[in-house]
## 1
Amino acid sequence: MNDPTSGVTHLDIDAKESTFLDSSELILNMGPQHPATHGVLRVILKLDGEKVLGLECVIGYLHRGVEKIAENRTYAMFNPYVDRMDYVAAVSNGLGYCEAVEKLLNVEAPPRAKYIRVILTELNRIASHQLWLGTHALDIGAMTPLFYTFRDREEILKIFEKYCGARLTTHAFRIGGCLYETYDGFEQDVRNFLDFFTPKIDEYEELLTTNRIWVQRTRDVGVISGKDCIALGVTGPVLRASGVKWDLRKAQPYAAYKDFDFEIPVGTKGDTYDRYLVRMAEMRQSMRIIRQAVDGLPSGPIMAKVPKVLKPPVGEIYHSIEAPKGELGYFIVSDGSTQPYRVRVRPPSFVNLQALDLMCKGQLVADVVAVIGTLDIVLGEVDR
Amino acid sequence: MPSYITSYLEKSVQVTPGEAGNIFWAMVYILCVFGGVSLVVVCMNWLERKILAHMQIRLGPMRVGPHGLLQPIADALKLILKEDIIPEGADVLVFWLAPLIILLAVFSVYCVIPFGPTHAITDMNIGLLFMLGVSSLGVLGIVMAGWASNSHYPLIGALRSSAQMVSYEVAMGLAVVSAVLMTSLNAQGTGTLSMIGIVQAQQAQHTWFLFKFFPLGVVAFVVFAIAMIAETNRAPFDLPEAESELTAGFHTEYSGLRWSLFMLGEYAAMIAVSSIAITLWLGGWMRPFPHLLTGPIWDLAFSLFPALTFFGLAALALYAVGRMWKVPYFRAQAIGLAGLAAVFGLIGFVLLLPPVRTGVQDVYWFVAKIAVFLYLFIWYRATFPRYRFDQLMRVGWKVLLPIGLIVLVLTAIAGVIFG
């Protein structure tokens, strides 16, 4: 057995390890059509009975060549494509891409656009965490929270729909600001949602936080230390649950985040239960940000002056934002033409997925499912 | 009419057909019980989906028939018509036998379940032992299914299942023994393992064993109630078929009719274990408060319950008809539902007739208690996350087993002191 703290080891499927009674291991293929691998992730497990000796992820079943597509599209044309990566947090993807190109063009979105971006992005963070909570609970065997979270997520999607006409892949932002002005009653809708959702979080927590089975299933499962997180590049709630206070919204404020007062929830042990608590607290913090943003929504233009044909100067840029799942970065190389020379995306799900092997070693099969759930991966983003 | 038919119709008969050696009536009872259980399983299929759906803020089946009432029939048709796949490399004979063994084990249990003092297929002096023994045979079917499928998920499911059975049978057995101990405290002073005898002992002692030596009876009942959920592989102990981990566990490779046999077996097992719990702790066929609320008025009041139940169902159906009639699209369905309401009403009226009324009392209360248990099964499924394998074993061996042992000892001591 490899020491889980020693770092990542590559699973050698053919290698024989001596186990109890020296029986050979069971190689179990989980996925890509498995109900709990969140899409088309394939995990090859090496098992000793129920115990996981090691695992290997096979990805690429949802590969669409998004980064290559970017090279054949203009900057504006590529914008909708990024929504299809992390399709449950499409707004965050759009925000990251738009800001990266804006940085490259050296333009800045007007304050009102920035505030609208923050409101929608934080709403999307709540929606993403709701989906995570529902599916994570379903993986652990609690069916019902899924339906509650989907019921409440609907309210967020309705706001998106009224704002830009789309619910999932919103394409809400444009390079230089926002295309759409807020609709009449937008602020009221958002405030109504905040009032509606506050008791709903309590409802979720009532179902799970003190539930004996839930606590037993999540506590000390998939433990990862802050050091290992940093070594593997794991970001987002997973990193924060391991006790590292790192949130790009505070560390490198983008959009309008420096105007708002909010806290970064951190965990202590870095187990699945901590990650659950961190994400629940994050939803509350997101609500705080949204309330401040709606209250202080400035007036003014929503679009900066950007040329009709975007021709960024020759150069390269890396811009990253705190997406619901972690650090979402865009590295864009411009050769001065209308199309990017190269776009490289640093997707949080892909990087976080690396930690799966480390977190699952020595655990049971049921924990693998729980850990996949707690990493909150979206395969559209892993494979791109 | 031949005497073997008439002899059993007389009022003086006090034994079950099996005991009396009356093969004709035993056969009738077997058909009634198996038909009834199958019918309940079909209803349960619909009810589980509906109740679960309403707990989860959705509607459940709504398309096939009014409120999806015909959904189980549609499902059954679909399952029968589906291709029956036997995976390559499977052990065909074992694969073929596994669902049958589960069904055989489950339905054999019904031989000794007493729906009334005479309403059982047979009564054995070792009825309880027979019941426990036969019902635990079901795990053989699961292991066979897991092994024969020649696939990893079913294999792990089968392994989990056998480990689960072993750890929960023990706690279950201890809880049962403490109830059996209580039977020896009646007037005659002799204990019994006969299912009918156990209920009669509760009758003689004027109490359900649930309340006997409070809280010992309750604790033993709770131990049994937890173990029986594990025994039937239902949430939160549904590890052998944990959907999110093992896709479908031991029946992953089964399809069509064979798969539906597993489902039939699972639901029938739920009814069977509920029956054991009811017989041992909840007074079997006895109506509530048989010794507290006595007298002809109370007898009459309680005897109206079966009819009232069916009138309630008819009223429910009529209410739905009233709502559906307003929508022209649902006219045909509304007419069908009205027919169902009429049938329920008719059954209700038949149940009002004095001879029928008294005749169905025992069966009615037994079935009503089963219904409560089945509702609890569904409720658990909507509420709890799933236990992990090692936690399940810990609950079985380190929590339930010691509690069962302590209750057993305390019951014995209490029996000596107060009995």
## 2
Amino acid sequence: MRRETILNIAIPGILLATALIAWAMGETYIITLATRAAILALAAVGLNIALGLGGLVSFGHAAFFGVGGYAMGILAFHAQNYMPLWGVIEGTKSMPIIWLVAIVASALTALAIGAMSLRTSGVYFIMITLAFGQMLYYFAISWPTYGGDDGMSIYLRNDFPGVNTLVPLNFFLICFAILAVVMVLADRLGKSAFGLALQATRQNVARVEAVGLAPYRLRLVAFVISGAVTGLAGALFADLNRFVSPSMLSWHMSGEIMILIILGGIARLSGPVAGAMLFIALEYFLEDLSHYWHVYLGAILLGVVLFARGGVVGLILGREVAHD
Amino acid sequence: MTEALLQTRAICKSFGALEASKDVTLDLHNGEIHALIGPNGAGKSTLIAQISGALRPDSGQVIFDGQDVTALTTTERARLGLGRTFQISALPMEFTVLQNVVLGALGQRGRAFRFFRNVMRDKALLEQAEDALDQVGLAEFRNFVTAELSHGQRRQLEVAVALTLQPKAFLMDEPMAGLGAEGSHRLTGFLDGLRTRAPILLVEHDMDAVFALADRISVLVYGQIIATGTADEIKANPQVREAYLGEEDAA
């Protein structure tokens, strides 16, 4: 087995083990942290499809994270208040339905944003995705129906058929299972015909055109898939916190998702998971040390960018190439 | 003669005051190698860019396979069967050699929106890709990362990718560049056999190769074609000798 394959199993394995040990020891807070890591990892796995495979430096992925979050929030809000949306849609507390809506809503958002943004490249692409993200952020702030600036609380965690989602470990396992499934799919995607063509657009656009493939369409589809995955993560994140607010849409969030990938290793399947675990662990340990723990995070990030471009996974694997 | 497969009709292209293409009319017929030569700065690259679709001419038309392709993108022209190689190797450097040719085969098949099956286990694509590597003599390097290849091997891979496209016409921009005498000689032999599969519009600085291969030669000077003819006709043309081969030769 290749070393990267082993890592792809081992890194999520550590996350699972952490949650199980915490459960055995009755450490509920650690389970919550592990859940947060799994969800953020999922968001970053999504971004990694655009960023890692496609080389699309999207600084607006919070838009999809937030749209997923608000999809959950709005559906649950109408369900808990018995106040149908537009008098017809009753809302729902069912996770599978919420996930589906979150995926579709964030995919459509990504289609609209991507269709316009992908006409640019380089710095302009970064700026335009950032601008679209901020547009949604300010829109959410000024939308009083759903809490505006204050956000809105969902009183009870949503339901999953046959599972008591109020038990922290159960909710972790749901999130972890989704992460695992999406990672398998993302792995397949990377090795598929589409993945090959997409990775070629990152490396040499002229070549892709010369073999008769259309880079814009490849990138747009990648962007939509990427946004949909991050949107699903947003729905789970809102469910974890039982709270949705515009901060999910802010550019800080976009930056955080990107930082996870850089910490863990760009274009590596388990990079986002390693990055999310490291990020949460740093937050947990450093926050005790100092309220300004982001300073240390910044220093570590600087170290990774300067000395370990491949992130954690890259450090472990050395120069082994990122693909078959 | 039969209808030309590829044709430029009175193409003009200017960059400010610089006329890079002036009324360029050029054609390529099935079964031939048509070489385009000219000194540096003559406008060869600009012309190639207009034929491949990277640049739009200010006026004039590009006709390919009976169709006006002037307004089509590079991608669309490639799909119609125009297979090009680049002057400076344009290869995804992180890919293996095999991945590069599989990408070509995938482009030829034209169904890139397949998200689940491992493309490197697709038998039909692999066969097509490996066949192309065999033809240019790169088969043993299939698992090398492209960035590890020598300059000459990258040139060979350029040609191999063009082969996977199974094009109706080849557009080759200095395939011999930097190959060295032996490599250049080998590629000359290969291209010689290739013309029966699809005609080649060949931009080349290597005059030995051009004179050995070309059925016809066009000479581009200051954006204009000053002569078109067989190797002997071109060698004997006084204008060409003066403009291109150097005046000391003409003396």
